[in-house]
Amino acid sequence: MNTTKPSRSALPERESADPNGAALEPARLVIRLDAIVENFRKVCALASPAAAAAVVKADAYGCGMKEVATSLASAGKCESFFVARHSEGMALRPVLPQARIYVLDGAPADAVPALIAYRLTPVLNSLAEVAAWNAAAAEGGLELDAAIHVDTGMNRLGMPPAELALLSAEWRKRLSSLRVVLVMSHLACADDPKSAMNRIQLERFRTALALLPPAPASLSSSGGVLLGREFAFDLVRPGLALYGGNPQPDNPNPFGMVVRLTSRVLQLRFVDKGESVGYAASFRALRPTTIATLALGYADGLMRALANRGWVFVLGQRAPIVGRVSMDLMTVDVTDIDGVKVGTEAELLGDLVSLEDLAQAAGTASYEILTSLSRRAERQYLGAGA
Ligand SMILES: *Cc1c(COP(=O)(O)O)cnc(C)c1O
After folding, report:
1. Looking at ligand 1, which residue's alpha carbon is closest to its atom 11?
2. CA of 161 to the centre of ligand 1 (A)
3. Alpha carbon of 30 to those of 95, 111, 189, 240, 383: distances in Å?
4. Which CATH number is correct for 257-382, 1.10.760.10, 2.40.37.10, 2.30.40.10, 1.10.10.10?
5. Best mutation site among 56, 61, 81, 82 for ligand 1, i.e. most ligand atoms within 8 A of its Cβ?
């Protein structure tokens, strides 16, 4: 160990203490609710005259479903929301007593009572679900709202062509007690505007719409919003764009940054040439190296795959991640950065490190970066209803 530089044991320099003690937590996740609302408005402008719903599944892509949905409903005047799970819809209902809440998981028979009790609108994915939901409506003497999901090439959820043909032939009977408020499908390749799949699915969707009773239609998630108005129909369903991700990563991102993840230097280490850093000694210093150990690890949502690949920003300069990312800690090379001290802030994600940068370094997608953000870092919500 090279000890020519003085060891730093001074107390970290922190911002003035937070009243609830949050300043003790070195890792911080700032979520800009005003930026989410701004991104929603941008989607509305791009899709107009189509309306926009907000996809808030998976805890609003890690950003906090309650906070995000409240801001979008009040500041953004958003009236409809999509979740994946029934439990998500049940949690959202008390937050938004009036909003339309679609549940993508649909209406399996055992979910019907909860769907009715929480006034959730199922996205019906099969004839079996149509039958269960229609029977529930008929038995209860109710007219229930439903969305119908037709599969135009994703081959994941939604009615395949054979089921659509049966529904088309007998829709008066099969939908007798239902009010179809939306017919939707989902694009497989909307992140790539050059993909031939986009137009193939557009044509299949138009064909499907002609087979069903007239109803508002929805095809596009975030990527589709950028494919042009032809793809917007009556309602678009963005998720990623609202949270600042780039729906078409080969083009510049039209949406504004929402999440900023920072942590602080817990300790500095002066490592001799030839010494290793971290578990499995996966990094070996090729020169005398200054290592900053940051209070942030994979338990905070930074993938282990970033070992010796990603980088962070310290004092406005790029510091490569060296060695493994461990559960609570990671190590970065700050040899070339002057003035780094215990307590200095590092940005892992935000203004200088985009979701796409981080995703690329980790070999994943910006979606997974967002949904991996953990609850351990101190959360701070800014703007719009925070
Ligand atoms: C998740 C999801 C969306 C939102 O997709 P983004 O790419 O995040 O905009 C829209 N529709 C369906 C069916 C989904 O599953």
Report:
1. 221
2. 21
3. 22, 35, 31, 17, 11
4. 2.40.37.10
5. 82
Count the Cβ atoms, other than its own, within 10 Å of residue 162.
9
pLDDT higher than threshold 80 for residue 6? no
Reported pTM: 0.93
pLDDT greater than 60 at residue 40: yes
Largest CA distance in the chain: 84
In sequence order, the 6+-apart residues with CB closer than 8 A to the CB of 29 are 259, 260, 261, 373, 377, 378, 379, 380
Q: Name the band, by pLDDT with cuts 50, 70 and 90, for residue 22.
A: low
Q: What are 229-281's pLDDT values in tens digits? A: 999 999 999 999 999 999 999 999 999 999 999 999 999 999 999 999 999 99
The residues of the chain that CATH labels 3.20.20.10 are: 33-243
The CATH architecture to which 33-243 belongs is: Alpha-Beta Barrel (3.20)
Quick one: which atom of ligand 1 is closest to the CA of 237? 10
Query: CB 296: neighbour CB atoms within 10 A?
Result: 27
Could you tell me if 349 and 311 are in contact, meaning their C-beta atoms sit under 8 angstroms apart?
A: no
In order of 126, 128, 158, 197, 383, the CA distances from 151 in angstroms are 10, 15, 5, 13, 38
Amino acid identity, position 5: K
**Nearest CA among 115, 81, 76 for reference residue 96:** 81
